[in-house]
TrEMBL record, chain A:
<feature type="binding site">
    <location>
        <position position="23"/>
    </location>
    <ligand>
        <name>(6S)-5-formyl-5,6,7,8-tetrahydrofolate</name>
    </ligand>
</feature>
<keyword id="KW-0963">Cytoplasm</keyword>
<dbReference type="InterPro" id="IPR025867">
    <property type="entry name" value="MnmE_helical"/>
</dbReference>
<keyword id="KW-0460">Magnesium</keyword>
<dbReference type="GO" id="GO:0005829">
    <property type="term" value="C:cytosol"/>
</dbReference>
<feature type="binding site">
    <location>
        <position position="232"/>
    </location>
    <ligand>
        <name>K(+)</name>
    </ligand>
</feature>
<protein>
    <recommendedName>
        <fullName>tRNA modification GTPase MnmE</fullName>
        <ecNumber>3.6.-.-</ecNumber>
    </recommendedName>
</protein>
<dbReference type="InterPro" id="IPR027266">
    <property type="entry name" value="TrmE/GcvT-like"/>
</dbReference>
<feature type="binding site">
    <location>
        <position position="257"/>
    </location>
    <ligand>
        <name>Mg(2+)</name>
    </ligand>
</feature>
From TrEMBL, chain B:
<keyword id="KW-0520">NAD</keyword>
<keyword id="KW-0285">Flavoprotein</keyword>
<dbReference type="InterPro" id="IPR044920">
    <property type="entry name" value="MnmG_C_subdom_sf"/>
</dbReference>
<dbReference type="InterPro" id="IPR002218">
    <property type="entry name" value="MnmG-rel"/>
</dbReference>
<dbReference type="Pfam" id="PF21680">
    <property type="entry name" value="GIDA_C_1st"/>
</dbReference>
<dbReference type="InterPro" id="IPR040131">
    <property type="entry name" value="MnmG_N"/>
</dbReference>
<feature type="binding site">
    <location>
        <begin position="272"/>
        <end position="286"/>
    </location>
    <ligand>
        <name>NAD(+)</name>
    </ligand>
</feature>
<dbReference type="GO" id="GO:0050660">
    <property type="term" value="F:flavin adenine dinucleotide binding"/>
</dbReference>
<dbReference type="GO" id="GO:0002098">
    <property type="term" value="P:tRNA wobble uridine modification"/>
</dbReference>
Length: 462, 623
């Protein structure tokens, strides 16, 4: 990889928009722009402008004006990459974006590779490894909670916490080394009871971080909620009711088969992913029985299950409904199950309440927007967001998770060794190993594959 | 007088010089050993002991490669101890008290019997260098002696300056004059020179001490030895050492001399070893400690001279004397000679290659205190490596370099040339990343094949090593293949508070349990029969036991070594332009340019080069 040259890429999402931002980074970024920028004020040279200033003008190719733009100048090392950076805010048509990028590619810029801006920021000491990884998460975060975690990690919260533990452990490791090398001399030895306390503390923190991965992971990806119900019980209406209310970003992700449509929505900052399923009604139809198998698979993947039925047809179906609810409960006894009687505006709810005495029964009318708020509260109840609210560190990165697990394993060996009165030189081997895994997280350990992995996850422009 | 050109000239005949001369000569190089005083070959200038933690491992490594230190130590020891026996096998460290006079005598005898080795007594006062290539040395009488390579092992002699209180005198050792000329020549050639300081305690008359007031420190009941060869035998009788303590009163008396101490009044500016501090340093730095240990070590079988370990000092002799007389057991002490501090020139070892050849002058090698190290063992091992490499270069053969996971010697040299040293460098086990692999019991298995390959370790050594390895491998297999019944093993396990066996299992499993030792296993008839049938000696038993009981740790270290060694495989091109690493800190870049590491792994060990700097270099190396 060459790091001396100047790179360019679109920094805003691809496609047309109101405004697009094109980022250029490299030693020559500013001087390279000068010939193609014509300021509204005559004879303004970008290279002579102060850092962190914005300039209005036109991007020109010879006599041809491409667009009116705002050019922001950041001089290294006080920029994202640590190099000289120019950001051109142009009008958002794909044509204009491409014209400008092509112009600079013809005149000394190179198209940035995925993650190359962040790689340069890392290389120039602007970010450490776990901060760089957080950038990738930040880009792809689309709800408040995951954004918050990524931000926290990018500011260094996570690596600071690990770094702190590592320093303490390192300190003890050196006391143990001292005791080994100066066994014949008169030195103070490492206090075993203090060390045991430290090992305990490290274990607690590691376990908390490891547990937080489960939370972190669902927050990052959204909490999967399976909706089970026969056709026409009002699934789409319910989803729309939930979605309209929040005016959240809704995206339709087409699944691999027609029968799985996922809808994402954000409730109080927590992302939820709704997975529609075909229902589980007993059938002799081969095609449909495959569908049932699929439904159970989906339920298995979900964190929360919603069983939806049409309250207005409860009487004729009550037996079937009970059987289906029981089936789900038996198959997934641990999974939170919300039972929703929809269309209550058209039906008698008394019978439902007496016959279905389940903990999470909700009476609701999606169409009339009755009880939708209650459903949202219910869903939030099932999410363990304690850690998030307390502003604790949450692990979202599977590489970190992996290193934490391995570190914990080593720390447990250290503890066992301490209990058995193991000699310091043997304890030291496990301690060194634990330190190694801590270092993997904070970037104190350098291996080539580590680097390769991290920057491969980026999109171009960052 | 010298009309021939030598292959190798070794300047200085201390521990480094003697090993260098022996190695080069034994490898077939015509060698000349030049020293200022042939009566003082391999003098123990400080304490009369070899080995200790990490240092004992080095002596065994020297021996395994075919050096002399182990044999000389065995033949002249008056006491032997295996230190740290209660810890894991990586910490077991042999240490011997030596008879100082016999030690030097034995070295001289062994060198005299070494083929290809000539001797000459005179001071080397300069170097003959042409076009950055060594051509020989000049002596104080004006002689020129020519050689293809030169090993400098000047110890504390280069512009040596002895301090006792406010008195200063030129000298390389008490009673010996300093060497001059070489430093100036080297500085003119472009070498960077520095000053270091070390010290030594008073020597006293053992007849004036009251040992009944001290604690006896005997040697091991069953002493082992250093050399893997069969030319030496363990001691059959030993001399005791003794231990006593300083007191507040002693400290107060010492403090009365602080204003006249060269350490505190600014006369000595150079750095001394933090790890081997003078007594004044100790009471100054550890003011809250009301006493410090002192070890009273006899200087030999017959001599009455005694070494006062732990009381190194450069305070005025009257203060030394008064303070020492206040130590329990020393009330009537008579001095043989006071302690002193000595300052001397050294050359920051970052100016060397892994072969200990200087980067500036081809064919010129440095070993020992000239490189900023302290200790006989550290010096001896460098001398050995410099002697080997000087001979190899003359013979046009590949250099001999030990890796960090192969030997403490490898750790030592890599540390020196990569990190340099700000204070006299002493070896510690914690300096080795792979301590569990670098044990005193397996130095022969690690190194004898390498020593044999270059022609230094002789065939009988190699055969002994192979036999030991084969026998212990076979014995390990025996444990893996032989089953043991619960009713046979359970009584022993119960005694050790280990959980009972439910069904028959391999002996190996039982042996692997904590607390179970070879002595326990020997109680089973199959095991004791196997030992007597196969005539297994203690070395084989020990090797087998370590390999079985610590296999988990050994494997783990091996894996770690492999993992971290991957950076070892990423070579930095010789002409790599470190200046283009603009994002690496200025300090780190300067160090990289100066040391010019050959691999990324070596770069990562340079102080001031951070892991993120290494990440950046990885990117540049196209990884």
């Amino acid at each position: 990889m060459i790091l001396q040259d100047t790179i360019i890429a679109l920094a805003s999402p691809s496609g047309a928009g109101a405004i697009a931002v094109i980022r250029i980074s490299g030693t020559d970024a500013i001087t390279l722009c000068d010939p193609f920028f014509s300021s509204v004020k005559k004879n303004k040279q970008l290279a002579q402008q102060k850092s962190h200033t914005i300039h209005l003008g036109h991007i020109v190719d010879g006599k041809r004006v491409i667009d009116q733009v705002l050019v922001s100048i950041f001089k290294g090392p006080n920029s994202y990459t640590g190099e000289n950076v120019v950001e051109i805010s142009c009008h958002g048509s794909t044509y204009i974006q491409q014209e400008i990028i092509q112009l600079f590619l013809r005149n000394g810029c190179r198209m940035a590779e995925a993650g190359e801006f962040t790689l340069r920021a890392f290389i120039n000491g602007k970010l450490d490894l776990s901060q760089a990884e957080a950038v990738a998460d930040l880009i792809s975060s689309d709800n408040e909670a995951s954004h918050q975690i990524a931000m926290q990690q990018m500011r260094g919260g996570f690596s600071n916490e690990i770094q702190h533990l590592r320093d303490e452990l390192l300190n003890f490791a050196s006391l143990i080394e001292l005791e080994l090398d100066f066994a014949e001399e008169d030195v103070e030895f490492a206090d075993r009871s203090q060390f045991e306390a430290l090992v305990d503390r490290i274990q607690t923190v590691l376990k908390r971080l490891i547990d937080s991965f489960a939370v972190g992971n669902v927050i990052k990806n959204g909490i999967p909620v399976a909706i089970v119900g026969a056709p026409n019980v009002g699934k789409s209406t319910l989803l729309n009711a939930l979605l309209n209310e929040e005016r959240a970003i809704v995206s339709d992700i087409a699944g691999t088969t027609r029968d799985t449509i996922e809808d994402e929505l954000v409730i109080q900052g927590i992302g939820f992913r709704f997975i529609d399923t075909a229902g589980i009604r007993e059938t002799e139809d081969v095609v449909e029985s495959i569908g049932i198998k699929k439904t159970f698979e989906k339920i298995g993947q979900a964190q929360v299950v919603i069983y939806l039925f049409d309250a207005s047809h409860f009487e004729e179906n009550s037996q079937l409904i009970t059987v289906e609810i029981e089936k789900i409960k038996n198959q997934f006894p641990q999974k939170p199950l919300v039972i929703i009687a929809n269309k209550i505006d058209k039906s008698n709810t008394e019978k439902i309440q007496t016959e279905l005495s389940y903990e999470h029964l909700l009476l609701l009318s999606a169409k009339e927007n009755i009880g939708v708020e209650d459903l949202k509260d219910k869903l939030l109840q099932f999410v363990n967001t304690g850690a998030l609210r307390n502003n604790e560190t949450i692990v979202t990165n599977s590489r970190h998770y992996d290193s934490l697990l391995k570190a914990l394993e080593e720390i447990e060996k250290v503890q066992l060794g301490l209990n058995d009165g193991l000699s310091g030189d043997l304890l030291a081997i496990d301690i060194r190993q634990a330190l190694y895994y801590f270092g993997e997280i904070t970037g104190e350990v350098t291996t080539d594959d580590l680097l390769g992995n991290i920057f491969a996850n980026f999109c171009i422009g960052k | 007088m010298f009309d021939r050109e030598y292959d190798v000239i070794v300047v200085g005949a201390g521990h480094a010089g003697s090993e260098a001369a022996a190695a080069a000569a034994n490898m077939g190089a015509s060698t000349l050993l030049v020293t200022m005083n042939l009566q003082n070959i391999a003098q123990m200038s400080c304490n009369p002991a070899m080995g200790g933690i990490a240092k004992g491992q080095i002596v065994r490594e020297i021996d395994a490669l075919g050096g002399y230190s182990g044999i000389v130590t065995d033949r002249t020891a008056i006491q032997f101890k295996m230190l740290n026996k209660s810890k894991g096998p990586a910490m077991w460290s042999p240490r011997a008290q030596s008879d100082r006079m016999r030690f030097a005598e034995e070295w001289r005898m062994m060198l005299e019997q070494t083929p290809n080795l000539d001797f000459y007594q005179e001071m080397v006062s300069g170097l003959i260098v042409e076009n950055n290539e060594i051509k020989g040395v000049k002596t104080s009488l004006g002689l020129s002696i020519y050689a293809k390579s030169v090993v400098l092992t000047n110890g504390t002699f280069l512009n040596g300056l002895i301090h006792i209180g406010e008195k200063q005198m030129g000298g390389g050792r008490a009673g010996e004059r300093a060497a001059t000329g070489i430093t100036a020549d080297l500085v003119e050639l472009g070498f960077e020179a520095g000053r270091m300081k070390t010290g030594t305690p008073p020597r006293v008359d053992g007849r004036s001490l009251d040992y009944s007031k001290m604690t006896v420190q005997p040697g091991d009941a069953i002493p082992e030895k250093f050399s893997y060869s069969d030319v030496t035998k363990p001691l059959t009788h030993q001399r005791d050492c003794h231990m006593t303590y300083t007191s507040e009163k002693v400290h107060d008396l010492l403090r009365t001399g602080f204003d006249r101490s060269p350490m505190f009044n600014g006369a000595i500016k150079s750095t001394g070893p933090r790890y081997c501090p003078s007594i004044e340093d100790k009471i100054n730095r550890f003011a809250d400690k009301d006493r410090h240990q002192m070890f009273i070590e006899p200087e030999g079988w017959n001599t009455v001279e005694v070494y006062v370990n732990g009381f190194s000092t450069s305070l005025p002799e009257d203060v030394q004397f008064k303070a020492l007389r206040s130590v329990v057991g020393f009330e009537q002490v008579k001095f043989f000679r006071p302690g002193y501090a000595i300052e001397y020139d050294y050359f920051p070892p970052t100016q060397l290659k892994h072969t200990l050849e200087t980067k500036l002058v081809s064919g010129l090698y440095f070993a020992g205190q000239i490189n900023g190290t302290t200790g006989y063992e550290e010096a001896g091992s460098q001398g050995l490596m410099a002697g080997i490499n000087a001979a190899l270069k003359v013979q046009g053969r590949n250099p001999f370099i030990l890796k960090r996971n192969e030997a403490y010697i490898g750790v030592l040299i890599d540390d020196l040339i990569t990190k340099g040293t700000e204070e006299p460098y002493r070896m510690f086990t914690s300096r080795a990343e792979y301590r569990t692999l670098l044990r005193q019991d397996n130095a022969d298995i690690r190194l004898t094949p390498l020593g044999y390959e270059i022609g230094l370790a002789k065939e009988d050594r190699m055969n002994r090593m192979i036999e030991k390895q084969q026998k212990s491998d076979a014995f390990i297999n025996f444990f893996k293949e032989t089953s043991i019944k619960p009713e046979d093993a359970n009584p022993m396990l119960e005694e050790l508070a280990s959980s009972e066996m439910k069904q028959s299992d391999k002996m190996y499993k039982v042996f692997s349990r904590p607390k179970v030792t070879m002595d326990h296993m020997k109680q089973f008839a199959e095991v004791s029969d196997y030992i007597s049938e196969n005539n297994l000696d203690t070395e084989v038993l020990e090797q087998t036991e370590i390999q079985i009981k610590y296999s988990g740790y050994i494997e783990k270290e091996k894996n770690n070594a492999d993992k971290l060694n991957r950076l070892e495989d990423i070579r930095i091109p010789e002409n790599f332009n470190f200046d283009k690493l603009t994002s690496v800190s200025f300090e780190a870049r300067e160090k990289l340019k100066k040391i010019r590491p050959t691999t990324l792994s070596q770069a990562s060990r340079i102080s001031g080069v951070s892991p993120s700097d290494i990440s950046i270099m990885l990117v540049y190396m196209g990884r």
